[in-house]
Amino acid sequence: MDIMLFHSAHGLRPAVPAAAGRLRAAGHRVWTPDLFDGRVHSSEEEGRAYQDEVGADELLRRAIAAAAPHSERGLVYAGFSLGAAVAQNLALGDVRARGLLLLHGTSDIAEHAYAQDLPVQLHVADPDPFEPHDWLTAWYLRMGRAGADVEVHRYPGAGHLYTDPGLPDHDEEAAGRTWRVALGFLETLEEPADPA
What we know:
Helix 3 (56-67) packs across helix 4 (82-92). Strands 2-1-3-4-5-6 form a 6-stranded parallel sheet, sandwiched between helices. The protein is α/β, with parallel strands linked by helices. The protein contains 6 helices and 6 strands, in the order E-H-E-H-H-E-H-E-E-H-E-H. Strand 3, helix 4 (82-92) and strand 4 (99-103) form a beta-alpha-beta unit.
């Protein structure tokens, strides 16, 4: 599969290319665009402040520009936290999207969003201060109404960005389970047919 993998509010940290390497080793083609122009942040607060400075519209514009050259055959959109929110927005706006893999984050869903039969998998800490239970319940229902095929995996006791080995949130066991399940999910997605 062709996968567009977006980083979190921490920026393009080493964990992102490492995750891309894991996906490539499983046979996927992966791109990891830098939406922060090289800036990497040591804290979530610092990253969110820069995210606010750039603005949601500009970040989305950068993400669309990064995905556009690769989207014709159909992409799986994926991301970490902020990057998951970006991935969700792109996937719901791309009728050719093959799947959506959300790690540690979601985004709001427009009232009339359409994602018929879009395979979606979410991995999230439980509890997660950025993804509270009430929000996730509403998100799950809205995604279902949009037609998506959603599965949610929760990891009790893990920190928000638990898949990043370089952050205090890291939880080795939860990260290992996440990648095993996520790789299995990607294997179930339909590879686009090669043009004749």
